[in-house]
Sequence to fold (274 residues):
Amino acid sequence: MSPVSPIIDAWMQHPTPRFMAEPWLDSLRRWTGNDFAGPWPLDATLAAMDEGRVAVGLISAWVGPMGALVTNDEVAAWVAQAQGRLVGIGSVDITRPMEAVRELRRCVKQLGFRGVRLLPWLWELPPTHPRFYPVYAECCELGVPFCTQVGHTGPLKPSEFGRPIPYIDQVALDFPELVIVGGHIGYPWTEEMIAVCTKHRNVYIDTSAYTVKRYPPALVQYLAAHGRKKVLFGSNWPMIAPKHALAGLETLGLDDEARALFLAGNARRVFELA
Fold:
């Protein structure tokens, strides 16, 4: 593979033992045949990026009802150690709306993070629930994307709240200024996610959790044509290594522009990376 530009991975985690011990990851362990056993020094994540020719990875905190599985301060420390290879994406506790807003503000203004990620399935609430709305408003004020998961839930949690229609569609209608990045391509509702991205100027897809060989035909067609500015590469490391996620990229038949936008250009623009 000879990418026409440096690769930016829009969805990564540098895992903690707390994160990897969660029982809802059992389904992913079965599907991948990987027990994700540690230890996980930062060098392991950076080595996986090198192997996949990823120049920059966006790594996120994980906060849910059980508490912080990956804290914002842990992410900030890894970003500092990685010397420009990693960019932070924060997470917040939506059960305390004003604290969530203040923490998001800290993540962006003090820690230098470029967005926030919240997973509705982790909270077992739809993204249209009022608890999310203060975060959306603050994202608009700060000018940073809201990152989430669309599609079914691989972990052992309900999938209903990953439906692009009606949920992402309604959020985009309520907050037209909000930049939304829906990870995991929306399967089995990928065509719904494509429709929502086409409808709304500020809604995007990332391909995390799927290898090139598993992209649905509708996504490939969208990526190659009128959706070339709407799709970002993501791996979902450590569940899928970037090199494995991108294997067979040449089979998609992308022209140079679509390939460059997919691998880096769209992420650089959406997250306002240098």
Observations:
- Residues 256-270 form the longest helix (15 residues).
- The chain has twelve helices and ten strands.
